[in-house]
Description:
Layout: H1 8-24, H2 26-36, H3 48-58, H4 63-68, H5 70-80, E1 89-93, E2 108-112, E3 119-122, H6 129-141, E4 160-164, E5 173-181, E6 184-192, E7 200-204, E8 210-211, H7 232-242, E9 249-256, E10 259-266, H8 280-287, H9 294-299, H10 305-325
Antiparallel strand pairs: 1-4, 2-3, 2-4, 5-6, 5-9, 6-7, 7-8, 9-10
Helix pairs in contact: 1-10
Amino acid sequence: MMPPPPAPADAAVFALWQAWAWLRHPRRMLRYRREAGRWPDVARPGFLSERMLWRKLFDRNPLFVTFADKLATKDWIAARCPGLAIPRTLWRGTDPAAIPASLLRPGVVIKANHGSGFNLFLRESVPPRAEVEALARRWLATGFGRSRGEWHYTRVRREIFVEELLGRPETPLFDITVRAGGGRVAYGTVLLHAKTPAERSSAFDPEGRPIHQPNRKRSPPLPPGTPLPAAYARAVEAARLLSREVDFARFDFLACGDELYAGEITLFPGSGMHDPQEPALSLVLRAWDMRNSWFLRKGAAAGGWLARRYAAAFARSIAAERAARGWD
């Protein structure tokens, strides 16, 4: 069902907002066109990727900076889910030369807190200390997110930390990601051998029922007969609780047997350019009520005339669409 058209006055406001976005952010808009193959609508975003672009351009939620910092995220989760296990931080600091020699051993992972991909897993062998320190210094010297418009990473105080490495040889380690917002869970994904050539993944609704995903472009599905991790239901409930303070995010967990560990909170999976296929897309759009965004709740009120008029018109448009689709 198509959302109802806006009133003429609101339609005029949306046109002005779209034009202002082009004047203010032409490179971001053009980049979206190149990557998605369509012109973005950031006045009434419909696709998930358009909502993500809207968030990059307009939503300056201070909580996003917390989520960009892996160490701050641990503290934030612990304060809200004290019963949820979190991988132990064994050391943290800004000088890689200060990493204790006793921690350069198998069974740990060395990370930077301010971006994605800054990980060195020490499983069986350990590189020379000089190589580890040089790699960590490159991480500290490398900014993250600016080229993609993920502004929140640029405000993180950069640190290196050493974390316990989870998993046991006799027990498979599953990554569980749950997409949720405002206390509503959209769906979860269970990954085996994540971020390796052997990666397999399947999607499930909040009750653990499989979600069909045709024409997969990423990892193939889990092998037939793979049981759903026992911790999946706990991950869903943890994401439901943690998402109450944000309009939408992906909440990451690790499951080892019956044990569940909290991981990162991701605001722009795939830099926000991945549009899932139905029915996952509908589940996401239903869970993500953009009226709960910081921009519509607080940010626009401190803006100019156009921002305030746009926020009011967009809130009306969201309410009309959700009512028409039976989402409220």
